[in-house]
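Exercise 3.2. Students should predict the tertiary structure of the chain below and write it as structure tokens, then compare their answer with the key that follows.

Predict this chain's 3D structure.
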Amino acid sequence: METGSNAKSDAGSQEEPKIQGIETPLGAPPKTEDKKPHRITKRWVRTNRISRPRTLAIDVGGTGIKAEILDSQGKPVTERTRVQTPHPATPAAVLGAIQKITDGQGGFERVSVGFPGVVKFGTVLTAPNLSPRWKKFNLGKALHRIYGKPVRVSNDADVQGYGVIRGHGVEMVITLGTGVGSALFVDGKLVPNLELGHHPFIKGKTYEEKLSHAALDAAGKKKWNKRLKKAVRELQLIFNFDRLYLGGGDAKHIDFKLPENVKVVSNQAGLWGGIALWQEASSR
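Answer key:
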């Protein structure tokens, strides 16, 4: 089994080549010098699937689970499907929900997963907003058994970060939803397992306790935005980031003017970033 970094991992034995730009459209035979039509053989199909792999991208959240298939350049080729995260969100229940929304997605050659917790080599170490049963559960292996494809798993905020970063300087991602996720990148390289949401923030309470969806409901939108504004200021002082990206389902509730180097990003990046798990790993 191939292994990745501490922040992400893969299951399965298929080794993927480095993804490069492709001149011929996906699914079209290569151009030939003569005028004879190219014969599409089984060998040609197998070769093109390997060099132009499609990725099943899965985003597991505390509220919803989403999936879609991306082409080799990271563009969606299917409609996004979504289902509510089951409760209790045990491994068996979540795997069942994933299968439900991916059954009709079509063919793919590999799988990328964003998961709300600390993940090392495909194994979940923490999942505070799901279930205690996730501790030491190898999600990569479980999905490899289901799909028979190579799988890479990373923290969901890390995956979202891969979908939005520029790859230069210090870039930070904060996801606002059921919990508070975080990711830090330096010149495009991930600093794994930051888990800022569980660090102290205000009066001994953590960022997650003050900025989660439950905190938004309890405190109200005005007070929640005041807290978030304070958090942005503090994170700038602590990390001196060049850019901060705010994502997640609750980012839509932000109502104050953000600094020039802070922006709200699409929640879809939690899926789009799945392609980068393979690009980054194959470039090592």
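Discussion points: The radius of gyration is 20 Å. Residues 153 and 235 are 27 Å apart (CA to CA).
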